[in-house]
């Protein structure tokens, strides 16, 4: 199974990907996570990407498509893939078709998380994650069960993303509207798009996604 989770910043792509990994043993391929790891490691890709990400703009198509290709290389043929935050432009969508064909794979579903854009700034500015295992939380919508302690690994260290500020979020939203939303009609023509209500509680969204996959 190869699926794309599509939606604007803060729609819940990362949250739902983590659930799919836990419930179905699929592999999450998040270009945002890959780029942040490259920035942290100080690789040439990371050095090039950092300023672009800090502005909320899109990193070059060649860089992110190469990351996806490399990660698929490392996966077993029968392992399901969740594309989280990729593709984001028409060029990336056509790169993905080529890369999937090269790996003997094809797209099964494009799942669009439909959200009220006005709620997203609040979602993103309230987001934090475990500094040890990366588990995602939100100040009010999804806090750890025990305050200050990660539900997953018990760490007491948390962090926030540098691009999760209101100004950068507005640029990220505009990039989504201008460059990413226009790739949906192409997938609709192929009959593989399903929409879910991304404003529902996290477990309800997860149930809607599971219903699509079964
Ligand atoms: P990336 O890391 O992909 O960020 P994004 O697309 O902006 O998406 P987010 O991670 O902000 O949101 P999400 O939808 O995953 O929401 P989440 O589940 O965390 O990209 C970052 C940057 O990297 C880009 O700006 C760009 O520069 C670069 N980049 C990455 N990929 C690229 C590509 N392909 N091409 C070019 N450049 C690329 O949820 C958000 C919060 O809401 C959390 O706190 C969560 O707990 C909460 N929440 C989630 N669901 C719900 C719910 N149903 N109800 C209430 N709260 C919820």
Structure overview:
There is one protein chain. The chain is of the alpha/beta class. Helix content is 48%, strand content 15%. The chain contains nine helices and eight strands. It has helices spanning 13-24, 31-41, 44-55, 61-73, 90-102, 117-125, 166-180, 184-189, 202-213; strands at 2-6, 27-30, 81-84, 109-114, 127-130, 136-138, 158-159, 193-197. The strands form two sheets. The chain has a five-stranded parallel β-sheet, sandwiched between helices. A three-stranded antiparallel β-sheet has the order 6-5-7. Helix 2 (31-41) packs across helix 3 (44-55). It starts with a strand and ends with a helix. The mean pLDDT is 95. BIS(adenosine)-5'-pentaphosphate (AP5) binds next to helix 1, helix 2, helix 3, helix 6 and strand 6.
Beta-strand residue percentage: 15-25%
How many beta-strand runs?
A: 8
Radius of gyration: 17 Å
Number of helices, counting only DSSP H or I runs of 4 residues or more: 9
Could you list the spans in which at least 5 consecutive residues all have pLDDT below 50?
Answer: none
The helix content, as a percent range, equals 40-55%
- Please give the alpha-carbon distance between the first and last residues: 11 Å
How would you briefly describe this protein structure?
The protein has 214 residues and is an alpha/beta fold. 48% of the residues lie in helices and 15% in strands.
Topology, element by element:
Blueprint: E1 2-6, H1 13-24, E2 27-30, H2 31-41, H3 44-55, H4 61-73, E3 81-84, H5 90-102, E4 109-114, H6 117-125, E5 127-130, E6 136-138, E7 158-159, H7 166-180, H8 184-189, E8 193-197, H9 202-213
Parallel strand pairs: 1-3, 1-4, 2-3, 4-8
Antiparallel strand pairs: 5-6, 5-7
Helix pairs in contact: 1-9, 2-3, 4-5, 6-7
